[in-house]
Amino acid sequence: MGVLDRPANAGEVIGGALIGGVIGNQIGGGSGKDIATILGAGSGAILASDQRRREPVVVGYRTENRCEIVYR
Q: What span, in angstroms and rounded, lies between the C-alpha atoms of 58 and 65?
């Protein structure tokens, strides 16, 4: 199991929710602003928890030599 195979921790999810809430708060006005803030916070938390599973893990590198035969 690599480092990025673990689930997101609470700090990452809370940070995503805070950032999403701040962005959502910039949208709309009145009760629409409240709804946008809630949706932004929820979306941010979901994206933060899901992001850890999408990051690629580089295990190592290797050099390969390949030959190609071309017929004319």
A: 20
